Amino acid sequence: MPEGTVTSADGTIIAYTAWGAGDPIVLIDGATGYRAANPLNQETAELLAGEFLVINYDRRGRGESSDTPPYVVEREFEDLEAIIEQAGQGRPATVFGWSSGANLALNAAHDGVPIARLALFEPNAAIDDARPPLSDDYVESLDAAIAEGRPGDAVALFMTAAAMMPEEVVAGMREEDFWAGLEAIAPTIAYDARQVGDALSGKPLRPELWKRIDIPVLVMHEIDTWPALAAGSRAIAAHLPTSTLTPVPGEQHSTTADVLAAALRTFIKEN
């Protein structure tokens, strides 16, 4: 289980862990996720390591990766490209993204990052009234909270507006020990908001959104997930001509390592 770093185009150091050998599978966390906070990635990697090189990295500004302001979405495309080229030895890569990490993967593929296949777990989209849309000033509100030294407010805004958690639940979370860890990576929540863009506007997805993606795409959602998350997954799958929609077992916006590993293995072998 080697650990290492790659250097992105702007000099940012991106830390990663790798398992196995073969064609790479790159795992991308969603908002607030990173290697130390998401053991499911390691569990999944260990199940796939006999056939693939599985790479799990800390997105910029999280975990052991550094950051270089100012942020624009293209910097994370460059991070992913550096992971594929340097850690993945430039071999054809399958890129898997959780939640808003799936939106990042879509954006990167559309921008030309060399990706062979995309696998997405409950990517973010809202095209109707299945869930409240994000407000037009959501990103600006996150930025303001960080600039004013209120990282906890940025986390709380994400939890209520984006993750749709009740305010009283979030208020209780702010008293828990883990909240300090969330505050430490609070600036990166606005990174995910920019990657999601207007996909959570409550309006139909723009025709030009991801129109250059012509590689195989697997879109997964839990069989019993929240209706809004299933609706978002269906909307993105319908929007992408090369996609397949697959409901999988799971709960609470996640699944198990054995389910995920099996889905990825089958998807890669069939494509």
TrEMBL record:
Residues 33-257 form the AB hydrolase-1 domain. Transmembrane segments: none annotated. It holds the Pfam family Abhydrolase_6. Gene3D superfamilies: alpha/beta hydrolase (3.40.50.1820). GO terms for molecular function: catalytic activity. This is Pimeloyl-ACP methyl ester carboxylesterase.
